[in-house]
Specification:
- The two termini are 13 Å apart.
- This protein is α/β, with parallel strands linked by helices.
- It is globular and about 60 Å long.
- Strand 3, helix 2 and strand 4 form a beta-alpha-beta unit.
- Strands 3-4-2-1-5-12-11-6-7-10-8-9 form a twelve-stranded mixed beta sheet.
- The chain folds into two domains: 190 residues, Isopropylmalate Dehydrogenase (3-Layer(aba) Sandwich); 120 residues, Isopropylmalate Dehydrogenase (3-Layer(aba) Sandwich).
- 50% of the residues are buried.
- The chain contains eleven helices and twelve strands.
- The chain is 37% helix and 17% strand.
- This is 4-hydroxythreonine-4-phosphate dehydrogenase.
- Catalyzes the NAD(P)-dependent oxidation of 4-(phosphooxy)-L-threonine (HTP) into 2-amino-3-oxo-4-(phosphooxy)butyric acid which spontaneously decarboxylates to form 3-amino-2-oxopropyl phosphate (AHAP).
- Its EC number is 1.1.1.262.
- Pfam families: PdxA (PF04166).
Amino acid sequence: MTPPIALSCGDPAGIGPEIAAKAWSNLRDSCPFLYIGDASHLPQGTPVAHVTSPAQAQEICATALPVLQMGFPAPNVPGQPEPANAPSVIASIERGVSLVQSGAASALCTAPIHKKALIDGAGFAYPGHTEFLAALAGRDRVVMMLASDQLRVVPATIHIALSDVPAALTPELLRETITITADGLRQQFGVTTPRIAVAGLNPHAGEGGKMGQEELDWIAPLIAAISDDTYTVTGPHPADTMFHAAARARYDAAIAMYHDQALIPIKTLDFDRGVNVTLGLPFIRTSPDHGTALDIAGKGIATPTSLIEALKLAQKMAQSS
């Protein structure tokens, strides 16, 4: 039997607690998971069972949300992140990583964090979850994939200014991104021979050098030089023609050159069901593709759809691994 999924609480002042409760209500009979956080942060009336290990969560999940209790020093007020609680938020993530690395949990799913609160309260030194998880796992390079039933897309560069992309986008970076994506598709998604499509950097993939030279100078030669019997790579393709239905049928994942080139198509195609997946870690990690949504926290109106999809995908990936 596949062990349950560990769900770290994220910032409890955001929508994490309420979407966790809603996700449990939806998935309790089909996708066991345990919540790593403070049970008092969950919506009033949520059936809760305190556990000390994921193994206990397997049977309990059908009747109550299993909670691995974490202490938080300051009161939690929805919509108002409390820096004093930052060490506990970080500890929740660390506990989840420990559980999945030991095999006690099959995967880690992470609720959204509030980076400023973590910086202010704990001197958090990472741009976000992805980089922190890479450090905990001892990995120098990981890849962020956004996945849904309609599209899997990977941005080669992520949270940097558009003006910085050409310098940051190196042959080494693109090659590593392609390799990690191919390995992730095989190992965690069960795609035997992955097909990867690479977008161009410039409009119309440079249009023969008239709109930019990077495609001619090194992107196309790099793609042509990649020789691997276990996957295929095509491109560089004009990004504006890569994401319609017929084009998507020709690849298993697309690699985009920068953040918006990747995220605009998936959020347009499947806004509520997109899932953030970290490839290149020695364990499975998924996350809902949204933030803490402080403006609606505690109001009971947050949709759990992305978290539900993140938990379901984590379970599917664990069963495919």
